[in-house]
Write a structure and sequence with these properties.
The protein is of the alpha+beta class. Helices cover 51% and strands 16% of the residues. The protein has two domains: 102 residues, Arc Repressor Mutant, subunit A; 115 residues, Orthogonal Bundle (Arc Repressor Mutant, subunit A). 26% of the residues are buried.
Length: 233
Amino acid sequence: MTIIQKGGKMSDLNHDLHARAVKALSENEVRKMEHCVGFDRKKIYHRGGTAYYKPYRNYYDAGGTDMRVWERLVEKGFADCAEPKKDGGKYYWLNRNGLNILSAYEECFIYSENANGNEIDASEDVIDILLEDAVYCGYGCWIPSGARNIAIRARLPYKLTLSTLKYLRNKCGYVAHYYEGGCNDDGEVHCTHGWTLTKKWIDEHQERHKAAQKAEYERIDRIARDEGALESW
C-alpha cells in the first residue's frame, strides 16, 4: 500500500514501495491493470493530505495475446479469473494484492470498485496483524494492537483500518476492543487498550492459529539457539 502527500511529496517508505512496484510489473502489465480499473490520473482526489482513487469497475475481458499477460498477473498473485468462456477468453480482475501493487506504482491508494467491499478486502490484512500479536501473547505479555499501529503495519489508510475493525467486530464477531488498567509495584497507574482476536475467530480458524503459534515458537527457538551459540563462543 502506498500513500503520498498532496503535491506528490513521498516519504522514503513510499519511494521504496514505488520502486519495488516498478520492478515487479512490466509496462504492459501496468497498462492492462490500469484499463481493468479504469484508472484516470485526473480523477485522483486528495483528503487529509493523502491521494486516493476510486474505480468504477474492476474487470477485463481478455482474449488472444492479452491472456498471456493476465495469466502472468494471476501467477504473481495480483489477479484472479473466472472459468474460460465458450470462445476461449476469460474475465480477469485485480485482487487486493493487485490493487495494492498498482497503488504503489501509481502513488495513490486505490479502493475496491465496490465501496462496501473495502472492509472485506482489508480484513485479512488486519487479521494477519492481530494474529501475529495474539500468538506473541502466548509468552505471557499482551501486546495491544492499536488502530494506528495496525494501519501502519498493514499499510492501510487509518480510516479504512478503523472501519475494517468495526466491520470485523460488529458483523463477524471476530475482534474485540479491550481496556486494561491498574498499578505496578511502584504504585504507578497504567492504562492500555487495543484490538484483539476473539475466541470465535480462533475456534473457527484453529489450524491457522496453530500454524501461527508453531511459527512463533520456532522463531523464539532460533533466537534462543543463536544466543546460546554466542555465549558458548
